[in-house]
Specification:
Order of helices and strands: HHHHHHHHHHHHHHHHHH
Number of helices: 18
Number of strands: 0
Helix content: over 70%
C-alpha cells in the first residue's frame, strides 16, 4: 500500500470524526433555541446510530460489490450533505430527518476502512488511523465553540464542517484508481473475491463473537455518553458556563487523540491485549477522579484521563479481529462489531439522558463506571477462552 493511499485513508477518518462530538458541544444552545427537553439529544443520537447499525451490517455486501474506495466516497458524500442540511435546520424534526443519511454514511465508511487497515497495516497504523478520527472529533467542537464564542448561530458550525467534508470527498474521489489497484492486488494475492457475504445468523454463532459484540457495545456507550453528555454535565453539575463547557467538552477527545498518537508507538513494543488493559486502568482512574469532590480543574483533567484510557481500546479490539476470526471473515465480523458499537450508542447515551432527567446528572460517573466494569468482564472472559490467539 502506497504512502499516498495511507494518507488518504487517514484523511477519510478525519472526516468521519469531524461531526461526532459537535452535537454534544452545541446541544446546550440547541435545546433552548428549539424549546425541547434537554434529554432529547438522545433521540437524534439514536437515529444517527440506527442508520450506522443498518449500514455496518451491510458493509460486507457493499464492500464486496463496490470496493472500499467507492464505498468511502459515497459514504463521506452522504454524511457531508446531511451536515449541510443540519446547517439550514431550524426545527428538531428536521434534525431528526437529516440524522438518517448522516448515520447511513458514517457506518459504511467506518466498517470498510477499519477492515482495510486491519488486513493490510500494522497495529501502529490502526492506532494512528483512530488518532485521525480523534483529530477530526477534536476539530469539530473547536469549530463549534469558536462559532458560539463569536455569537454566531450554531448552524454555522455545521455549515463549515459540511464544506470541509465536501472537499475531502473530492480528494478521495480523485484517489479512486489507487484504491482499485490495491484491491486488485488483494484479489490476486489472497483471493478475497471468492468469499460470498456471510449471513448474520452464521456470524453470531462464531466462538467468542458475543463477547466481542458486548465489548464494542460497552466501549462506544462509554465514548458517546462522555462526548454527548460531558458538556451538559459540566454545566448542570459543575456550574461551568455554556460557552466554556462547549470548549472543554473536547478535553475527552484530546485525551483520545493524544493517547492514540502515543499508542501507535507503544504498539511497536506491546501487543493488543496489553494495550487494552492499560486503557481499562486509565479509564478507571479518570472515573474515580470524577467521583471525588475536587475543583472543576480536576474534573477537566479526569475527562482527559478517561480519553487517554479509551485511546487504545477500540483500535486494538479491531486490529486483533483478523487474527481471532481469520482474514476471510474479518470484514463481516468488523461489520457486526461496528453494528454492536452503534447499538450501544443508540441505547446507552439516551438512557443516561432519561435517567439523569428523572434522577440527577450526578449519575454520570457511576454510569460510565458500570459500563466499564461490564466491558472488562466480557473481554477478560474472551481472553480466557483463547489459547495462542486461536478461537476456542
Amino acid at each position: 500500500m502506497t504512502s499516498i493511499l495511507i494518507a488518504i485513508i487517514y484523511l477519510a477518518f478525519i472526516s468521519l470524526g469531524l461531526p461526532d462530538s459537535m452535537l454534544g458541544s452545541a446541544w446546550p444552545t440547541i435545546y433552548k433555541e428549539f424549546g425541547v427537553n434537554v434529554s432529547w439529544m438522545g433521540i437524534i443520537s439514536m437515529i444517527i446510530s440506527a442508520g450506522t447499525v443498518v449500514s455496518s451490517l451491510n458493509s460486507d455486501k457493499l464492500t464486496k460489490r463496490f470496493g472500499a474506495g467507492k464505498v468511502t466516497v459515497a459514504s463521506v458524500a452522504l454524511t457531508a450533505l446531511a451536515l449541510l442540511g443540519f446547517s439550514f435546520s431550524h426545527s428538531f424534526i428536521s434534525l431528526c430527518i437529516l440524522a438518517i443519511p448522516y448515520g447511513l454514511g458514517a457506518g459504511s465508511v467506518d466498517a470498510a476502512l477499519n477492515n482495510y487497515v486491519a488486513l493490510h497495516l500494522e497495529a501502529k497504523h490502526m492506532s494512528w488511523l483512530h488518532c485521525m478520527w480523534g483529530l477530526g472529533a477534536l476539530t469539530g467542537p473547536v469549530i463549534m465553540g469558536a462559532v458560539l464564542s463569536a455569537n454566531r448561530p450554531w448552524n454555522m458550525g455545521y455549515r463549515i464542517v459540511g464544506i470541509i467534508q465536501l472537499v475531502i470527498v473530492v480528494i478521495i474521489f480523485v484517489s479512486l484508481p489507487k484504491w482499485e489497484a490495491s484491491e486488485e492486488k488483494d484479489i490476486e494475492d489472497k483471493g478475497l473475491e471468492k468469499r460470498e457475504p456471510i449471513p448474520l445468523h452464521k456470524l453470531v454463532r462464531l466462538p467468542g463473537i458475543k463477547n466481542v459484540m458486548l465489548s464494542f457495545f460497552c466501549y462506544c456507550a462509554i465514548e458517546q455518553t462522555v462526548m454527548g453528555w460531558g458538556s451538559t454535565y459540566l454545566v448542570l453539575e459543575k456550574g461551568v458556563d455554556e460557552t466554556t463547557a462547549a470548549k472543554l467538552a473536547v478535553l475527552f477527545v484530546i485525551g483520545i487523540t493524544i493517547g492514540r498518537a502515543l499508542n501507535g508507538f507503544l504498539a511497536i513494543k506491546f501487543n493488543d491485549v496489553q494495550l487494552i488493559y492499560m486503557g481499562f486502568t486509565l479509564i478507571s482512574i479518570g472515573v474515580v477522579l470524577l467521583f471525588l469532590p475536587f475543583s472543576n480543574m480536576v474534573s477537566f483533567i479526569a475527562l482527559i484521563i478517561v480519553g487517554l484510557g479509551c485511546a487504545p481500546v477500540y483500535p486494538c479490539f479491531i486490529h486483533s479481529t483478523p487474527e481471532l476470526f481469520g482474514e476471510d471473515m474479518s470484514q463481516a465480523v468488523i461489520g457486526v462489531q461496528m453494528a454492536s458499537a452503534y447499538v450501544g450508542v443508540v441505547v446507552m447515551p439516551p438512557l443516561f439522558g432519561f435517567l439523569a432527567k428523572a434522577l440527577s446528572f450526578r449519575l454520570f460517573p457511576y454510569y460510565i463506571l458500570i459500563l466499564e466494569l461490564i466491558m472488562v468482564f466480557v473481554y477478560s472472559d474472551l481472553r480466557g477462552k483463547k489459547t495462542g490467539g486461536q478461537s476456542s
